[in-house]
Design brief:
The structure is a single chain. This protein is mainly α and 225 residues long. It has helices at residues 15-39, 55-83, 88-97, 100-110, 125-150, 157-171, 175-207, 211-217; strands spanning 10-11, 219-220. It has a single domain (10-220), classed as Fumarate Reductase Cytochrome B subunit, CATH 1.20.950. 69% of the residues lie in helices and 2% in strands. It has a two-stranded antiparallel sheet with strand order 1-2. The protein is elongated, with a radius of gyration of 21 Å. The relative contact order is 0.13. The mean pLDDT is 86. Belongs to the HupC/HyaC/HydC family. Residues 13-218 form the Cytochrome b561 bacterial/Ni-hydrogenase domain.
Length: 225
Amino acid sequence: MKINAERKAEYEFSIGYRATHWIRAITIAVLIVSGLYIAYVFQSANINDEPVLFLQAKWRFVHLVAGFIMIGAIIFKSYLFVFDKLSRRELVSILDFINPKIWIDQIKFYLFIGDHPQLKGVYNPLQFIAYIIFYAVAFLISITGLILYVHVYHNGLGGLLYEPLREIEVAMGGLANVRAIHHICMNIIIFFVCVHVYMAVFNAIKGKNGAIDAIISGYKFPAKD
């Protein structure tokens, strides 16, 4: 098999995409750790009779700050997906998603029985549907997180959102169900992150086109035709 070593730099991800990606990555890690602590207290400082440690309150503060940062990043990323010219290839991925031939070729690539298909967009069909599911879950975990937030903070933003979010809370079956859905969404995101990292490394090694480099520098290096 002849290997074509010639490569060309191709700008794939804008600075906005890369920034929101790493912001989400960091905040998700912080949210997982802080969320687990809030739900299941697994550490404490030295035992003290005086109520001055406030560890739960500190972890809750970290969780809230990271949560609002992630919500902001998701909103901004959604805006880029629809309106940013540099992110247009993400939107074009819809064409690959609805193309049955691309689906077949992509699955063959993952099964080591075919080459990677030529894509019009950035994402292959499996990536595209995975990201759709991720953003749906991210939206749901954000909504449930805000519902839990307004039951603790009743002024300012909490007071503003309380009434409209109460309607959603009732539709979900009450606060206990909201909390359960919030935790289920977290578990789905943990699973997604593990699969995402594995597939990113898999594609980078098998494709040999600098796929992981693109999320850092913005450029990948596909072989010339």
